[in-house]
Design a protein that fits this description.
Layout lengths: L2 H14 L12 H12 L7 H5 L3 E3 L5 E13 L5 E11 L3 E3 L1 H12 L2 E2 L1 H16 L3 E10 H6 L8 E8 H4 L1 H10 L7
Helix pairs in contact: 1-2, 4-5
Bound molecules: zinc ion.
Length: about 190
């Protein structure tokens, strides 16, 4: 990302919304915003291969593995405003497992882009399934969207829940139930 160019664009934006980018409090703002956006969009410049970095381990266990309450921060693609919340991931390993911190990095890799929550949820599920060669994967995400909370009065406190279930989590009701029970949720998925 070209920080200098984005700094100029933010400066233009400030003028258009009625601000004076020369006033003291704002002098360094365009560059700060540009650097913030570089961070918030780093998923475009990161691959899951890099973040996982071979931290996949052989395992004989084929029970369900759950990572609950992984923090999610993303930017909605319709308004470029934040949505944030938590994500719960479950999978049944065949022969490989992955560390919880790496699951969080996979989430970040897709969250640090312009997103819609449904696609983000599905991308995480497919990626986890591919990376660990899982028999099944379930991802549930609960987020608040600032574009809803700040712009209207109708959905101020609403939490949007999305889910993606693949493999045995999709095909077997009992597996899905176990996952939802372990993450403490009831859903129609
Ligand atoms: Zn939005």
């Amino acid at each position: 990302m070209n920080i200098e160019r984005v700094t100029g664009l933010i400066r233009e934006l400030m003028i258009e919304i009625g601000e004076d980018p020369e006033r003291e409090g704002l002098l360094k703002t365009p560059e700060r915003v540009a650097k913030a956006w570089e961070f918030l969009s780093h998923g475009y410049r990161t691959t899951t291969k890099e973040v996982v970095n071979d931290a996949i381990f052989e395992s004989e266990a084929n029970n369900m593995i759950i990572a609950r309450d992984i923090e999610v921060y993303s930017m909605c693609e319709h308004h470029m405003l934040p949505f944030y919340g938590r994500c719960h991931i479950g999978y049944i390993a065949r022969d490989k497992v992955i560390g919880v911190s790496k699951l969080a990095r996979i989430v970040d890799c897709f969250a640090r882009r312009l997103q819609i929550q449904e696609r983000l949820t599905s991308q995480i599920a497919h990626e986890v399934k591919d990376i660990v060669n899982a028999e099944g994967v379930g991802v549930v995400m609960e987020c608040r969207h600032l574009c809803m909370m700040m712009r209207g009065v109708e959905k101020q406190n609403s939490v949007m829940t999305t889910s993606s279930v693949l493999g045995s989590f999709h095909d077997e009701a009992a597996t899905r139930e176990e996952f939802l029970h372990l993450i403490g949720r009831k859903l129609d998925v």
